[in-house]
Write a structure and sequence with these properties.
Strand order of the largest sheet: 1-6-7-9
Number of strands: 10
Order of helices and strands: HEHEEEEEEEHEEH
Strand content: 15-25%
């Protein structure tokens, strides 16, 4: 969306062209430098009690394509209605695939977790979360479907450990987790982009982020 901080090539001192091998090379080398710097400043921890918490969450299944995948047996997991497994299905006529079988259950069951090892705290996220939900910086941009949606709680701001880590795809893979105020399934596209965003088609729905963020913050 061209709102990210530009990546500067350390050799040429100019902005690296997006979606190029050099961009990945510069980014990878910078991450390696940061890791080496952290290793040199490492702290020895002799007393590290371990505590693990998990919380089950029900997330509305709003993605029509996921319903089709579940109905045709590609997505092999149960769906739920009011906390109970719901095996109901029906056939739906679609413009893309013709007549297809879909599931009718309302929710997907997943979980969030928190792992504490001494001064280290790890937030366990069941999908691929947008970084602004972790570190802050959620932005209201033109073209969003829910431009006035309240911001979700920022995960890192609620973490108590001296060293804070985020692990995505932890115990589950529910797809992208997107701030509701940045959600965009309908034109005009976000931030005046000529193309629709990619994440929504691989997300359970617009309220997934709120459920995940509120739930994990409640156990940190």
């Amino acid at each position: 969306m061209d709102i990210e901080k530009p990546l500067i090539d350390p050799e040429t001192h100019v902005k690296v062209e997006h979606k190029t091998f050099r961009e990945m090379e510069v980014l990878g080398l910078r991450v390696a430098d940061i890791a080496l710097e952290a290793f040199e400043k490492g702290e020895e921890v002799k007393d590290a009690p371990i505590q693990v918490k998990f919380k089950k969450i029900f997330i509305p299944l709003r993605n029509r394509f996921f319903r089709i995948l579940a109905g045709t047996g590609v997505l092999k997991r149960p769906v739920y209605t009011r906390g109970e497994v719901d095996d109901r299905t029906e056939y739906l006529n679609t413009s893309e695939f013709g007549k297809v079988k879909i599931v009718l259950g309302e929710d997907v069951l997943s979980e969030v977790g928190a792992l504490n090892i001494g001064p280290v705290q790890v937030a366990l996220i069941p999908g691929e979360i947008y970084p602004e939900l972790v570190n802050g910086g959620i932005t209201r941009l033109p073209g969003a479907d829910f431009p006035e949606a309240p911001f979700e709680p920022i995960i890192r701001h609620n973490m108590r450990g001296k060293y804070k880590f985020i692990v995505g795809l932890a115990d589950d893979e529910i797809g992208y987790i997107i701030p509701m105020c940045e959600w965009d399934e309908n034109p005009p596209w976000l931030n005046n982009s000529p193309e629709p965003p990619y994440g929504e088609v691989n997300s359970l729905g617009y309220d997934t982020a709120r459920i995940v963020c509120e739930s994990i913050c409640s156990i940190l």
